[in-house]
TrEMBL record, chain A:
The gene is trpA. The keyword Lyase applies. One of its GO terms (cellular component) is cytosol. This is Tryptophan synthase alpha chain. It comes from Desulfobacter latus. It catalyses: (1S,2R)-1-C-(indol-3-yl)glycerol 3-phosphate + L-serine = D-glyceraldehyde 3-phosphate + L-tryptophan + H2O. Keywords: Amino-acid biosynthesis, Aromatic amino acid biosynthesis, Lyase, Tryptophan biosynthesis.
Length: 266, 427
């Protein structure tokens, strides 16, 4: 595991961490869980196995009742988590527990309303206090992110923004000026958890992404096997595996997590 | 190639005045969009601005509505109801006489013309009660677009006749099994389709909600209601009404009527779904209950019925069309600015208003519209005979026979359905 002290403040931390890890690995792996799905206890064990198998970063999703950018797998996980009593408070407690215990950076992924209802500044302060390094909030584009950005900045947290294949070069550059940590590049149109064609078109798009940002890039949406990750080597710094790990757990149980992650990187 | 064109158009407009207007009404509105949809919305906004600036577009729209949808719809003097209450003179704006039976046609046909201009070939829509779905399927049939309608599974069950017509009109109806399986979930699902298929597809959002420019665009098409109503009442009475009433779900028919009287000394009254009563918690009142709070969902900021974590609550109304967690950001702003007053009507009051209107005027308002009637009936008797009120009858109730018959608890209807079910069983 990394020697980097994850207690160093973000956002410089996150970018530096990624660049340091990249010296050791051709590509990093970021995974995604929905907190509270299938249960907080199961989530803890999933995180443990993921870290043990060599995951470099993790997104912890705070479930929301209207996850408009998520596809069927993560959508159902959001609902199931809420139905079984996941609250924002319990998610904070969980995040604190894993960030205390495991030596990789954790990020929150959620929707704007969760931060908004908690209070942007209070939310960022709490993230900072429990050691979560940054956040990905897909329905807060830079144009709507003033309060969010100042809160994240105030508490030294990374605000990760998103590029999509529909984003123009000019807009990518605008987004880059607001982003910290890394840029999350959507591999394709659509929602999470559907098929993606890893093709030369995507190679061109990822080259465009890399050219438009000063930050490391992560690629997500549809990454689910080793071949996908091999394809992304040299084209991005981080491969994001989201829906597929949730599918694995649903189909094969919590203990399938470690072997699945190892199958991706070994 | 269409992607590049859309992006180019959006870029062109981003350089100019576009960035100035992001669809805020006070603190409400905005465009809380996933990055993947930003370019699509910029293209839509650009095309909408072009259309709005082009008076030929509005003429084309009015001609289409006159020849296809019975516009202008009449303003009916409700003489018997007026006598019954003995107060204000009651007029009814007859949006029920639109083709497909509701004001929804105004918005849908307008967006259809815009889709033609954008060169897209497929439309998608969400629907609650089914009116917007039927209207969209109708528009798609007329203009030759492929059409997919997302409808919460609960609504599919309570509105089978509308599903039947959507399918007959050539649309694919997709029951949404996620979330609370009603209108808001159908909206989420339509967005999920759109983020995949935006190159070929336009999302015909049905109400004055959602990310900019939808609240403005839908309100603009619906403004035809208020424009006509104002001219009609001036012709009939030579003076303005004292108050106008409209039901409020998402808020498009209310926005339509209110826009005719924005600069007039006319009280604008929106009536929300009180369900089983505000105290019961089973309602859909965002503006006139304390249960709603400021939030961000489905791409815009408004008052939502949500818990303290920001999770949306379940709503309840006798009418599927008002059963929604959010409300038009424009109406939310008017509420805070006290430019409009908001009341609620309970399910029971709504059924009473329906019965009375049918008996006294031979008019069958949709259960949604009955909220406006119920709201007006509470106030009409206490007004002077010199006062005039206009009630917006946003839709007709006869086509919702299953829901209305249930609401009225008609035993003969039940008997008929059981007999019919028996016949099908023996087929």
């Amino acid at each position: 595991m990394t020697e980097t002290n994850t207690r160093t403040p973000a956002p410089a931390f996150l970018e530096t961490y990624i660049r340091e890890q990249r010296k050791k690995k051709a590509i990093l792996l970021m995974t995604h869980i929905v907190m509270g799905y299938p249960s907080f206890d199961a989530c803890f064990e999933i995180v443990r196995q993921m870290v043990d198998a060599g995951v470099d970063l993790m997104e912890l999703q705070i479930p929301f009742s209207e996850p408009m950018a998520d596809g069927p797998v993560i959508l159902k996980a959001n609902q199931a988590a809420l139905d079984s009593g996941a609250t924002v408070e319990k998610c904070f407690e969980f995040a604190q527990k894993v960030s205390d215990r495991f030596d990789i950076p954790f990020l929150f992924m959620t929707y704007g309303n969760i931060l908004y209802k908690y209070g942007m500044d209070a939310f960022a302060a709490r993230m900072s206090e429990i050691g979560v390094k940054g956040a990905i909030v897909p329905d807060l584009p830079p144009e709507e992110a003033n309060d969010y950005l100042s809160a994240m900045k105030k508490h030294d947290l990374s605000a990760v923004f998103i590029f999509s294949p529909e984003t123009s070069d000019q807009r990518m550059k605008m987004i880059d000026t607001h982003a910290t940590g890394f840029i999350y590049c959507l591999a394709r149109k659509g929602v999470t958890g559907k098929e993606t064609q890893f093709s030369s078109d995507m190679g061109n798009y990822l080259a465009r992404c890399q050219k438009s940002t000063r930050l490391p890039t992560a690629v997500g949406f549809g990454v689910k096997e080793k071949a996908d990750i091999d394809f992304l080597m040299g084209k991005a710094d981080i491969a994001v595996v989201g829906s597929q790990t949730i599918r694995e757990v649903a189909q094969n149980g919590v203990n399938a997590t470690g072997p699945f992650i190892r199958s991706l990187i070994e | 190639m269409e992607t590049i064109n859309a992006t180019q158009i959006a870029n062109h407009f981003m350089k100019g005045r576009y960035m100035k207007h992001r669809g805020y009404y006070g603190p409400f509105g905005g465009a809380f969009l996933p990055e993947i949809l930003v370019a699509t919305f910029e293209e839509l906004d650009a095309r909408f601005r072009q259309a709005k600036a082009d008076k030929h577009f509005w003429e084309e729209y009015e001609t289409l509505m006159a020849t296809y949808s019975c516009r202008p719809t009449p303003l009916t003097y409700a003489e018997n109801l007026t006598r019954h209450f003995g107060g204000a003179k009651i007029y009814i704006k007859r949006e029920d006489l639109n083709h497909t039976g509701a004001h929804k046609a105004n918005n849908v046909m307008g967006q259809g013309l815009l889709v033609k201009r954008m060169g897209k070939k497929r439309v998608i829509a969400e629907t609650g009660a089914g009116q917007h779905g039927v209207a969209t399927a109708t528009m798609a049939a007329k203009f030759g677009f492929d059409c997919t309608i997302y409808m919460g599974e609960v609504d599919v069950l309570r509105q089978r006749p509308n599903v039947f017509w959507m399918e007959q009109l050539g649309a694919t109806v997709v029951p949404v099994t996620d979330g609370t399986r009603i209108l808001k979930d159908a909206i989420n699902e339509a967005f999920r389709d759109w983020v995949t298929n935006m190159d070929t597809t336009h999302y015909v959002l049905g109400t004055a909600c959602g990310p900019h420019p939808f609240p403005e665009m839908v309100s603009w098409f619906q403004s035809i209601i208020g424009k006509e109503a104002r001219a009609q009442i001036m012709k009939a009475e030579g003076r303005l009404p004292t108050k106008v009433f409209a039901c409020v779900g998402g808020g498009s028919n209310a926005m339509g009527l209110f826009q005719g009287f924005m600069d007039d000394p006319v009280e604008l009254v929106g009536v929300e779904a009180g369900g089983e009563g505000i105290a019961s918690g089973r309602h859909a009142s965002r503006l006139c209950s304390d249960d709603a709070s400021f939030g961000i969902a489905q791409g815009y900021k408004t008052y939502f019925l949500q818990n303290s974590d920001g999770q949306m609550k379940e709503t309840h109304s006798i009418s599927a069309g008002l059963d929604y967690v959010g409300v038009s950001p424009i109406l939310a702003h008017m509420h805070d600015q006290e430019k409009a007053r908001f009341e609620y009507a309970t399910d029971t009051e709504v059924v009473d208003a329906l019965k009375l209107t049918m008996r006294m005027e031979g008019i069958i308002p949709a259960l949604e519209s009955c909220h406006a009637f119920a709201g007006a009936f509470k106030e009409a008797a206490n007004m002077s005979t010199d006062d005039i009120i206009i009630i917006n009858q946003s839709g007709r109730g006869d086509k919702d026979i299953f829901t209305v018959a249930d609401a009225l608890g008609d035993p003969k209807w039940k008997e008929f359905i059981c007999a019919k079910a028996g016949e099908y069983k023996n087929d």
